[in-house]
Amino acid sequence: MRELPSGTVTFLFTDIEGSTKLLHELGAKEYAAALAEHRAALRDAFARHGGVEVDTQGDAFFVAFPTAPGAVAAAREAQDALSIPVRMGIHTGTPLLADEGYVGADVHRAARIAAAGHGRQILVSAATAALVDADGLRDLGEHRLKDLSAPERIYQAGEDGFPPLKTLYATNLPVPATPFLGREGELGDVQELVAREDVRLLTLAGAGGSGKTRLALQAVAAAADAYPQGVWWVALASVPNAADVVSATARALGGGGSLAEVVGDRRLLLLLDNFEHVIEAAPEVARYSRRVLRWTWS
């Protein structure tokens, strides 16, 4: 492996969109040939623009570039050479270069930007956009990524049309002060329960300060794709009694009328935070939503 660039580094993440579907459509032999062609085209473009391959897993690439223009040029060139739908995300930062590779939020940010895109789309962070020629960059506005970070302004390289980005475009979830670390097992358990059609209500219970809110926030953010009308946080700590929960929920959803009018036939995921002192309202709230994730203290 060539020496990894240090200092200000631009990361490029790629992966094939719908690879399983593509495998079924092409068959194993043709898919293997397409995958090999895809890898060769990517590596050729990366090498021509100074990219260093950091990691490759399956059909996904993680590449580091010493310059932002080189990364964008490599992505454009690679897309022109590809015949299968590959999505790409580019972000520039100053990560720590440790013995085992790059460490820092910039790596995760680049991966999240790539995951928000669609096949044949190149997404560019504001940090990268500031370092390249603005011609050919389309401003897609601010988006909240699924790591629950503050909004990120995202640009698209090229003028082609694509569906909306896979981001938290309909949410009022708070931005956590710290990243979500560990607890992968608990997160997986909650996500599995939320995804089940027979689970309408889910309660997270535990001692104060054990991280229930943080776990719940991460779980509902990850489930956002299944809820086209959004995932919503309802803060109940200051709600004095159960009779006020329904109106507080309506306000959190941006409505000034009744909860029935606000919800209608929308498919929503609600996170009701600090529910223990108003638990008598649970049956009433459950009538309005197809799926509610309810968090309470034990």
Question: What's the domain count?
Answer: 2
Shape: elongated
CATH topology name of the largest domain: Alpha-Beta Plaits
Radius of gyration: 22 Å
Number of helices: 10
Sheet with the most strands, sense and barrel status:
7 strands, mixed
Helicity, as a percent range = 25-40%
* Stretches with pLDDT under 50, minimum 5 residues: none
Mean pLDDT: 86
Order of helices and strands: EHHEEHEEEHEHEEHEHEHHEHE
Please provide the count of β strands. 13
Broad structural category = alpha/beta
Write the CATH homologous superfamily of the largest domain: Nucleotide cyclase, GGDEF domain
At the first level of CATH, the class of the largest domain is: Alpha Beta
End-to-end distance: 52 Å
**Largest sheet: spatial strand order:** 2-3-1-4-7-9-8
Seen as an oligomer or otherwise, the chain set is single chain
Name of the CATH architecture of the largest domain: 2-Layer Sandwich
Strand content: 15-25%
Summarize this structure as a short list of keywords or feature phrases.
alpha/beta, Rossmann fold, 2 domains, four-stranded parallel sheet, 298 residues, Alpha-Beta Plaits
Structural features, described:
By secondary structure, this protein is α/β, with parallel strands linked by helices. It folds into two domains: about 10-155, Alpha-Beta Plaits (2-Layer Sandwich), CATH 3.30.70.1230; about 185-295, P-loop containing nucleotide triphosphate hydrolases (Rossmann fold, 3-Layer(aba) Sandwich), CATH 3.40.50. Helix content is about 35%, strand content about 25%. The chain contains ten helices and 13 strands. The protein has helices spanning about 20-25, 30-50, 70-80, 105-115, 125-130, 185-195, 210-220, 245-250, 260-265, 280-285, and strands at about 10-15, 50-55, 60-65, 85-95, 95-100, 100-105, 120-125, 135-145, 150-155, 200-205, 230-235, 270-275, 290-295. A seven-stranded mixed sheet has the order 2-3-1-4-7-9-8. Strands 10-13-12-11 form a four-stranded parallel sheet, with helices on both faces. Strands 5-6 form a two-stranded antiparallel sheet. A hairpin with a 2-residue loop joins strand 2 and strand 3 (about 60-65). Helix 1 crosses helix 2 (about 30-50), helix 2 runs antiparallel to helix 3 (about 70-80) and helix 6 packs across helix 7. The longest helix is centred in the first third of the chain and has 21 residues, at about 30-50. The chain is elongated. The relative contact order is 0.10.
